[in-house]
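hiii so um. not sure if this is the right channel but i have a protein structure encoded as tokens and i wanna go backwards to a sequence. like what aa goes where. can anyone help
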């Protein structure tokens, strides 16, 4: 598919229009949805005895995803969660309801993506196969969302080295694991280093193990490797190490932890890096010039792409200096908005191993910004129609249709319409 390039004047105009309409857009968008997006993760860990596991479940929903009801001088939201663990035979091993109510004074708080309602639940389970079900019911909009996932609680009382799920921490753990220090897979890591923690159960005490910590891209390519050693005084041991990722680009990664020369099964954890814009721009220039192809003159883009690294930095600097709406300011709001969009695309639209900015939705988002309205038609058992998404930009009188033909989350642009 050929990429249609637009003038940067057009981009600047769009930025101003969309910035002025964000609050109304967000409230309208979520009032139209029939489901509420929320985030969750779980960790399978050894329990107090090796015959019982400790399942740690974290789930949360941002304020922006809820519908608030205006009540006099405040805004009110109410949701009901149900967390259920089913055995292999579909009988219930655990269930609990959680009710959250929220009242805020200002409308801008209702569209916050930084504030959220969160629960952390610890569940004791025997090793075996289970199904996790989380149901969220928005009491104001009556929208219902369900997340379902099958999983196996490990057998820690075995004849081989067994790992609990790796946990990403903001700082080194103390004597006990601090829940507030956990960085779940759905939360961006915005610091240049973080700690990796893992519980280890060995079939024999007084064992010294060599561990391999391998940070990989989603395609399996290793970007950072580190070895470590741990000695267990009993059958249990705790291992943690610090990973320094300042030189890595912002994207999703897969962490692999394994034992060297010992019978064991590796464990994995997903994470994603999202540094601040300024930190990103101080990094490797080759990692940030790619998205510029959408807004640069083609000949200028080819020149930038094939220039030596030092010349790339100079061309990059001159390009943005000419387009700084505040030339006497040390900051460039247009540059910052552009790379905020690139980050958002990478975080939300990555598909089939490609970073989000290279996908069709990422390209449209970077060029035009957030749509005024989003319509989703998710796949269901009663329709042969593939999932599709429609983005509408009212001020530009544009509509884009993306279709996931294979139902794998890979949405391709099939239509660009004017109205």
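sure thing!! here u go:
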């Amino acid at each position: 598919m050929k990429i249609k390039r637009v003038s940067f004047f057009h981009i600047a105009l769009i930025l101003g229009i969309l910035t002025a309409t964000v609050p109304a857009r967000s409230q309208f968008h979520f009032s139209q949805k029939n489901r509420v997006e929320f985030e969750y993760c779980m960790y399978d860990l050894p329990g107090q005895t090796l015959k019982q596991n400790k399942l740690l479940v974290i789930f949360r929903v941002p304020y922006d995803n809820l519908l608030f009801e205006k009540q006099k001088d405040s805004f009110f939201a109410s949701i009901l969660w149900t967390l259920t663990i089913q055995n292999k035979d579909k009988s219930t091993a655990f269930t609990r309801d959680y009710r959250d109510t929220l009242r805020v004074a200002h409308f801008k708080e209702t569209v916050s993506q930084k504030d959220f309602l969160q629960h952390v639940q610890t569940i004791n389970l025997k090793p075996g196969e289970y199904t996790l079900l989380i149901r969220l019911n928005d009491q104001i909009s009556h929208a219902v969302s369900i997340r379902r996932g099958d999983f196996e609680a490990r057998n820690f009382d075995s004849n081989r080295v067994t790992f609990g799920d790796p946990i990403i921490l903001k700082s080194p753990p103390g004597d006990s694991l601090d829940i507030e220090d956990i960085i779940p897979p759905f939360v961006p890591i915005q610091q240049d280093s973080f700690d990796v923690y893992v519980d280890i159960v060995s079939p024999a005490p007084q064992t010294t193990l060599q561990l391999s910590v391998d940070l990989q891209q989603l395609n399996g390519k290793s970007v950072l490797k580190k070895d470590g050693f741990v000695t267990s005084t009993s059958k249990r041991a705790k291992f943690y190490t610090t990973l320094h990722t300042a030189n890595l680009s912002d994207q999703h990664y897969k962490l692999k932890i394994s034992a060297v020369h010992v019978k064991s099964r590796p464990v994995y954890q997903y994470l994603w890096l999202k540094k601040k814009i300024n930190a990103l721009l101080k990094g490797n220039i080759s990692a940030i010039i790619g998205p510029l192809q959408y807004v640069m003159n083609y000949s200028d883009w080819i020149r930038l792409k094939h220039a030596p690294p030092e010349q790339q930095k100079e061309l990059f600097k001159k390009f943005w200096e000419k387009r700084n709406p505040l030339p006497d300011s040390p900051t460039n709001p247009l540059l910052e908005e552009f790379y905020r969009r690139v980050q958002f695309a990478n975080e939300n639209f990555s598909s089939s191993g490609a970073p989000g900015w290279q996908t069709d939705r990422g390209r449209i988002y970077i060029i035009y910004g957030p749509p005024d309205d989003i319509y989703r038609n998710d796949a269901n058992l009663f329709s042969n129609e593939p999932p599709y998404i429609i983005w509408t930009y009212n001020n530009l009188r544009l509509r884009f249709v993306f279709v996931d033909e294979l139902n794998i989350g890979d949405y391709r642009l099939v239509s660009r319409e004017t109205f």
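oh and The first helix runs from residue 8 to 19.
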